[in-house]
TrEMBL record:
SUPFAM superfamilies: Bet v1-like. Coiled coil: none annotated. It comes from Bogoriella caseilytica. Belongs to the AHA1 family. InterPro entries: ASHA1/2-like_C, START-like_dom_sf. Residues 20-147 form the Activator of Hsp90 ATPase homologue 1/2-like C-terminal domain. This is Uncharacterized protein YndB with AHSA1/START domain. It holds the Pfam family AHSA1.
């Protein structure tokens, strides 16, 4: 992690193993209806155009605060292998973070080894590297729970 005038830079990697083939895990990322179930919180608006150059937006308003808006643009998609996207997080009109994320899907031990790496620039004090990593880990856990329910 490094800090420059008015910004903090950080990179993290999170790995998960899902006992589901890569094609099914990838589908949970590419299908807007499926992704909305594990990625967008309750009451959040979710819109997704899963193609290179397409965007994904999640908007939510927490009680007593300004609207949060997370917008991603897909830079590269390799079915069942890789998703690369760049994102911004705004609270109201204030830009809080800019990030670049890769999600890799590797066939391993009859399932999928998912490796998510994010490089972020944090511009405000309302979101930092630790909270972003914690939130990302939580929605990867939600993905795992969704995949487990879908396979029973």
């Amino acid at each position: 992690m490094s800090t420059t005038a008015g910004s903090m830079h950080s990179t993290f990697t999170i790995e998960r193993h899902y006992p589901i083939p890569p094609e099914r895990v990838f589908t949970a990322w590419q299908d807007p209806g499926l992704k909305s179930r594990w990625f967008a919180g309750p009451g959040a608006a979710h819109d997704m155009d899963f193609r290179v150059g397409g965007t994904e937006t999640v908007q939510e308003r927490r009680s007593g605060s300004e609207e949060l808006r997370f917008t991603s643009t897909y830079q590269e998609i390799r079915p069942w292998e890789l998703i690369l996207y760049s994102s911004t997080m705004h609270r109201g009109r204030t830009l809080g973070t800019v990030s670049v994320t890769t999600v890799e899907f590797v066939s391993r031990d009859g399932g999928t080894r998912l490796v998510l790496t994010e490089h972020g620039v944090y511009l405000t004090d309302w979101e930092g590297p630790a909270s972003r990593e914690e939130g990302t880990a939580a929605w990867l856990d939600q993905l795992g729970a969704h995949l487990a329910r879908a396979s029973t």
